Amino acid sequence: MTTVANTLQDMKEKFNPEAAAGLDVIFQLDIEDGDTYHIIVKEGTCEIIDGPSDDPSVTLIMNAETLDGIMTGEVDGMQAFMAGNLRAEGDVMLATKLSELFPIS
């Protein structure tokens, strides 16, 4: 089983800086069966930090299995959202940019 740390490392490796041009946002990942992390995407850079952000742009709430499934392409993010396996708070439309920022190979 893949750990959240491995999934986050994979995200960092897949990061597409061109898709992040002009962005200044914080994605918070609240892993129900794990910890909370936030991802700062700013001007073509990506930084993943342990712990919650004081002011996330959007918070995504899911379990580790859902996160891993979305990042490997085994789970469609929109289907996970519709099924209640993924919840979002804040600027929900930002969540749709994740597939551009972290493309599945």
TrEMBL record:
Superkingdom of origin organism: Bacteria
SUPFAM superfamilies linked to this entry: SCP-like
Protein name (Swiss-Prot/TrEMBL): SCP2 sterol-binding domain-containing protein
InterPro entries membership: SCP2_sterol-bd_dom, SCP2_sterol-bd_dom_sf
Residues covered by the SCP2 domain: 12-102
